[in-house]
Amino acid sequence: MSVDLLRSALPDSADDSLSRAIGHPRLRGAAADALAAARARPTLAGPTLARWFRQARQLGSKERPIVQEAVFGVLRHQALLERAGARTAVEAVDAWARLVGGERFDALQSEGPVADLATALSLPQAIAAEWLEALGAQEAAALAGAFSGRAPLCIRVNRARIDRDALARRLLAEGVQTDPSALAPDGLLLRRRVNLPELGSWREGLFEVQDEASQLLIDAIPLEPGQRVLDLCAGGGGKSLGLAARGARVRAWDSRPDALRRLVERSRRAGAAVSVGEPRPAPVVLVDAPCSGIGRLRRDPALRLGLDPSRHLAAQAELLALGASLVEPGGLLVYATCSLLQVENEAPAPIFGWGEVERRWLWPQREGTDGFFWAIWRAP
Ligand SMILES: C[S@@+](CC[C@H](N)C(=O)[O-])C[C@H]1O[C@@H](n2cnc3c(N)ncnc32)[C@H](O)[C@@H]1O
Questions:
Q1: C or N terminus of the chain, fewer CB within 10 Å?
Q2: Could you tell me if residue 171 is inside a domain?
Q3: Same domain for 86 and 228?
Q4: For the chain, what is the domain count?
Q5: Cβ < 6 Å from ligand 1: which residues?
Q6: Coil, helix or strand at residue 104
Q7: Are 355 and 377 in contact (CB under 8 A)?
Q8: Structure pTM?
């Protein structure tokens, strides 16, 4: 059976009321303004949009989500909308309104599997070609569909303080309904968005927001009780806190001091054994490397604007080499990215003489998580 790759990211059902709502000239104009702001700063499109929406006081509380849907919808489907003739931001919003209203763009002809998949994903053809080769047409179409959906809001139960069932009951008492995540044993999926700082359970450090993929990595690292771990790219501390909740004593480092300050605050709230300091040798070293972030496209559709898979390659190689130099004899080196690209995942070569413990790709259309990769090697 042939697969219609070109239409593989289109929604399964129409939403007429959303389609009509964005037709209002003021809302359509607001969406076009937001898109222009994002396109003016492609590598910072996500934060630029977040700021634009924070400052958009002309939008009422019911209007803002409509404009957000339109902006992120155009970003998800922009290549298809352009192929359908949209030239300006306003035309793209109009074409997206038709898409949401159920239009299938039947007049568009196939230009071949790679071009069609690239259009569906709104990504470069080289990336479409790689995924088509790796997954086959059927699964590549499922990936395009998964990437055009919304990411669930997932939290990680702080198992040092509470178990998953008890937290689910506590959250329910606070008016928040959850479902256990399918794969990660400490994950809960929130059924609706909530303002977390309003929750007592959040202020008490009973959970952290964390995608299931990152939780699965934390669980995959073979740790001994109380083991020292160096988290070389700790950022705001998502992995550090998860490892500490598993009983590790974590030393966290990152090149961004502001991220480390946030980490300190979070680990205080979670009561986690995480200290911050310059990298030092440890039996387990985690390199959660800077990357294109392409595995997070569901969460951040604006990533497409500034996408450059080669941008972090030098840093990835350097951090991997530094990480390897800091692993104590017989210890583990863990390399992770939220990328689904060979060049960022497989290219950083394992070190000669080290044994590979595990290598795993997580795909949104398979595992339902963000796209993610890790490799674990044991030092001689
Ligand atoms: C994928 S993010 C880390 C996310 C974090 N581990 C978490 O779980 O929340 C990659 C991090 O690498 C950091 N980074 C980039 N270059 C670095 C370097 N040379 N040394 C240390 N950290 C670096 C970035 O500041 C960024 O926080």
A1: N
A2: no
A3: no
A4: 2
A5: 214, 232-239, 254-256, 259, 288, 290, 315, 319
A6: coil
A7: yes
A8: 0.95
* Tens digit of pLDDT at every position of the chain (380 positions): 689 999 999 999 999 999 999 999 999 999 999 999 999 999 999 999 999 999 999 999 999 999 999 999 999 999 999 999 999 999 999 999 999 999 999 999 999 999 999 999 999 999 999 999 999 999 999 999 999 999 999 999 999 999 999 999 999 999 999 999 999 999 999 999 899 999 999 999 999 999 999 999 999 999 998 999 999 999 999 999 999 999 999 999 999 999 999 999 999 999 998 999 999 999 999 999 999 999 999 999 999 999 999 999 999 999 999 999 999 999 999 999 999 999 999 866 667 788 999 999 999 999 999 999 999 999 99
Expressed in angstroms and rounded, the spacing between residue 71 Cα and the centre of ligand 1 is: 28
Residue ending a domain, choose from 123, 140, 158:
123
Q: Put the strands of the sheet holding 372-378 in their side by side order.
A: 274-276, 249-252, 228-231, 282-288, 327-337, 372-378, 355-362
Residue listed under structure tokens 């073979």? 222
| Residue 186 domain flag | no
Which domain range does residue 258 map to?
213-378
- The domain spanning residue 244 has which CATH number? 3.40.50.150
168 neighbors 188 (Cβ within 8 angstroms): yes
The neighbouring-strand residues paired with 327 are 282
Choose which residue among 210, 246, 287, 288 to substitute to test ligand 1 binding: the one with the highest number of ligand atoms within 8 A of its C-beta.
288
| Residue of minimum CA distance from atom 18 in ligand 1 | 255
Is 91 among the domain residues? yes
CA distance 112 to 120: 12
Look at residue 201 and tell me if it is in a domain: no
Single out the residue of 176, 164, 268, 271 nearest to residue 212, CA to CA. Answer: 164
Dist CA 60 CA 90 (whole Å) = 20
